[in-house]
């Protein structure tokens, strides 16, 4: 993927995030007002959820802006990891909101409060319309990176939360059963928590510099060792800087003759092409240290 294409995609995503943030912030204000008017926990939780999402979208927008900055001598990867940090913070905030909604929803089942069903329905519909608009804006960019995916999941959760609010409003207006509001709040929590945990797991996997999902390092080692010039591979590491940016490094041991014949020089290009093309996870940023068999033992004795 070219740099120009990446830059164009980042610019487009930034515009989408800006629109989604504007819509979400507007709905947030409406739902806060509605929560006080109707005394609805479901609407209040959805408003807090919207506050979290507004913050998350603002973080996502900031991250999308930072990602466009060019690498420097101080930050050799630029701000590419900003998207991961943003997605991590968003998922953590979502998890906190989900737990709060679940706990307070259970409490209100036993201590129901009076809810204005008609007003709740109006604010629920306003929220749903705004969330659907944000979903349509973000949908085409949701697979570009973790940052965009987190933002899209947030507005999807908001939309589902608005549906729960609308249903509870209809039930309260038709039957007067106030616990419907608490059940709606807990349903919103049930929608939030699993997605937040999944996204949090993905982002922490990257932050811990774990091996990229879908890449088996033992397969990589075996494939490299299969090269006729390679005697062994050690200090093999792989991690991920950001979405679609895995990196790999390794020490490759060859016979001394490879340095005298010039074969070691061509080997480097062959190994880089190998990891970029052979595996399911394409690694375009790889670093190999070619070393002789005599160099390996003293430097790395007792280390894989």
Q: Quick check: average pLDDT?
A: 80
CATH superfamily membership of the largest domain: Cation efflux protein transmembrane domain
Strand order of the largest sheet: 1-2-3
Note the total helix count.
10
Instruction: Please count the beta strands (DSSP E, at least 2 residues each).
Output: 3
Run of helices and strands: HHHHHHHEEHHEH
Quick description:
By secondary structure, the protein is mainly alpha-helical. It is built from ten helices and three strands, in the order αααααααββααβα. The protein has two domains: 3-207, Alpha-lytic protease prodomain-like; 217-300, Alpha-Beta Plaits.
Write the layout of secondary structure elements.
Layout: H1 3-38, H2 41-67, H3 82-110, H4 117-138, H5 146-175, H6 179-207, H7 217-225, E1 230-242, E2 245-254, H8 257-261, H9 263-277, E3 285-292, H10 293-300
Helix pairs in contact: 1-2, 1-4, 2-3, 2-5, 2-6, 3-5, 3-6, 4-5, 5-6
Which descriptors would you attach to this protein?
mainly alpha, 304 residues, 2 domains, 3 strands, 10% strand, Alpha-Beta Plaits, elongated, Alpha-lytic protease prodomain-like, three-stranded mixed β-sheet, disordered C terminus
């Amino acid at each position: 993927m070219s740099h120009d294409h990446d830059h164009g995609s980042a610019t487009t995503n930034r515009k989408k995030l800006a629109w989604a943030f504007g819509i979400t912030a507007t709905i947030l204000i409406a739902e806060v007002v509605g929560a006080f008017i109707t005394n609805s926990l479901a609407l209040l939780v959805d408003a807090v959820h919207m506050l979290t999402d507004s913050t998350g979208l603002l973080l996502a927008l900031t991250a999308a802006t930072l990602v466009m900055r060019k690498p420097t001598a101080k930050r050799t990867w630029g701000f590419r990891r900003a998207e991961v940090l943003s997605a991590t913070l968003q998922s953590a905030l979502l998890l906190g909101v989900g737990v709060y909604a679940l706990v307070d929803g259970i409490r209100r089942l036993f201590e129901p409060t009076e809810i204005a069903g008609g007003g709740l329905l109006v604010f629920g519909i306003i929220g749903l319309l705004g969330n659907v608009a944000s979903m349509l804006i973000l949908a085409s960019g949701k697979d570009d990176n973790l940052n965009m995916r987190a933002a899209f999941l947030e507005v999807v959760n908001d939309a589902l939360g608005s549906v729960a609010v609308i249903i509870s409003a209809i039930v309260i207006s038709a039957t007067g059963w106030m616990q419907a509001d608490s059940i709606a709040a807990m349903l919103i929590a049930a929608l939030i928590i699993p997605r937040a945990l999944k996204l949090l797991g993905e982002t922490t996997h990257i932050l811990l510099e774990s091996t990229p999902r879908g890449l088996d390092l033992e397969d990589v080692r075996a494939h490299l060792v299969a090269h006729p010039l390679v005697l062994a591979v050690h200090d093999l590491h792989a991690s991920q800087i950001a979405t679609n940016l895995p990196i790999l490094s390794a020490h490759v041991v060859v016979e001394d003759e490879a340095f005298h014949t010039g074969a070691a020089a061509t080997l480097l290009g062959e190994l880089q092409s190998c990891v970029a093309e052979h595996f399911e996870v394409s690694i375009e940023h790889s670093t190999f240290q070619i070393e002789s068999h005599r160099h390996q033992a003293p430097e790395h004795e007792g280390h894989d």
